[in-house]
Design a protein that fits this description.
- A two-stranded antiparallel ribbon has the order 1-2.
- It is mainly alpha-helical.
- It has 5 helices and 2 strands; from the N terminus they run H-H-E-E-H-H-H.
- It starts with a helix and ends in a 5-residue tail after the last helix.
- The protein has helices at 4-13, 21-36, 69-96, 98-111, 116-123; strands spanning 54-56, 61-63.
- The longest helix is centred in the middle third of the chain and has 28 residues, at 69-96.
Length: 128
């Protein structure tokens, strides 16, 4: 869901803007938690690799890791794969539902805000 806006920009405009930066940040943070905290990576397994805490190093704080650089590289790769897979899935869904995407964009442009019930109707193919 978080990557839908960016995927829609790419599909419709064949370009991307900075508008989805917070969504990308949140999707990445969720994927990192999936890998490091929730045990949702086959490569990492059901172990906790979250932050061990902040350490003051003279000029500022840094986060101390309780794992090796090799594990950090695996974590980064797993996070990247999750986010990329979700982006591909968002692109696929929006491409398959392009008529719904155009209709929803038109309704949003006209009304500025739509509610859950209206989204449900639009997803079922209703036009406003």
């Amino acid at each position: 869901m978080l990557l839908g806006g960016r995927a829609a920009e790419k599909i419709i405009f064949d370009d991307i803007s900075g508008g989805a930066s917070n969504d990308i940040q949140r999707a990445t943070a969720t994927a990192r938690k999936m890998v490091t905290e929730w045990g949702m990576s086959d490569k990492i397994g059901p172990l906790f690799y979250g932050s061990e805490g902040e350490v003051f190093l003279g000029r500022g704080y840094t986060t101390e890791k309780g794992y090796s650089q090799e594990v950090a590289n695996i974590i980064d790769e797993e996070v990247r794969l999750i986010v990329e897979d979700c982006h591909k899935r968002a692109t696929q869904i929006l491409t398959e539902k392009i008529d719904v995407l155009h209709n929803m964009a038109r309704v949003l442009f006209e009304l500025e805000t739509i509610h859950t019930e209206e989204v449900d109707l639009l997803m079922k193919g209703a036009t406003a």
